[in-house]
Amino acid sequence: MYQRRMILTLALAAPTMAIAPRLAWAGHSLPPQFRRQLEHDANAPIFGNPEGNATLIEFFDYNCQFCRAMMPVVDAVLGADSGLRMVMREWPVFGEGSVFAARAALASRKQGRYADFHRVLLSQKPRAERASVLRVARSMGLDTQQLQRDMGGLEIAQHIQKSNALAEAMGLVGTPTFIAGSDSRFGAISSAKLAELVAAARRN
């Protein structure tokens, strides 16, 4: 778990997006303005049922060991809940290797391989760095030259910037952070606890 957050500054050609006012959020009552931005971002990858009746958001980093440990837990919860919609928020906080991995993963959407690439990056043993990320991409048959060109896309920089801004504004303490409804959980948790978070969101 990443306890001391590093906010990465990205230069963008477009103006900085408006983010809800900063607040100290303990994870007990998520204000509606944050919930809207988290649940309805067209620039964020979606797992599970896109039309689901409950939404789970994960802030994660490919170099976070607890994010890696949570991947099979997340897959189990998604597999058991056909009504679950999951929003993936790339939040690279462990240095430049994490930034490269996040940008590459988001760029892989243009080749229709985000879900596969995401899971392989989280399951690999080596640290996610430029060389290891491109090695994974080649092993999966991705066009790595096109991938690297697509990594410079404005929408990718905007996704990461928004993750940083939302995390900062909400006072998130690190990865992985799971948010559903107006509540959240931080760190590695059981599939039962994650399912409880989703169930509470449905009830409320």
Describe this entry's structure for a reader.
By secondary structure, this protein is an alpha+beta fold. It has eight helices and five strands, in the order H-E-E-H-E-H-H-H-H-H-E-E-H. It has a five-stranded mixed β-sheet with strand order 1-3-2-4-5, with helices on both faces. Strand 4 and strand 5 (183-186) form a beta hairpin. The radius of gyration is 16 Å and the shape is globular. It starts with 31 loop residues before the first helix and ends with a helix.
Order of helices and strands: HEEHEHHHHHEEH
The portion of residues forming beta strands comes to 5-15%
Give the averaged pLDDT, no decimals: 87
Task: Please work out how many helical segments DSSP would assign.
Answer: 8
Strand sequence of the main sheet, in spatial order?
Answer: 1-3-2-4-5
Measured as a percent range, the helix fraction is 40-55%
Principal-axis shape equals: globular
Signal peptide: 1-26
Organism: Paracoccus maritimus
Pfam family, one: DSBA
Protein name: DsbA family protein
What is the element layout, followed by pairings?
Elements: H1 32-39, E1 46-48, E2 54-60, H2 65-80, E3 84-90, H3 96-107, H4 114-123, H5 130-139, H6 144-150, H7 154-170, E4 177-180, E5 183-186, H8 191-203
Parallel strand pairs: 2-3
Antiparallel strand pairs: 1-3, 2-4, 4-5
Question: Quick summary of this structure?
Answer:
This protein is α+β, with helices and mostly antiparallel strands and 204 residues long. The protein is built from eight helices and five strands; from the N terminus they run H-E-E-H-E-H-H-H-H-H-E-E-H.
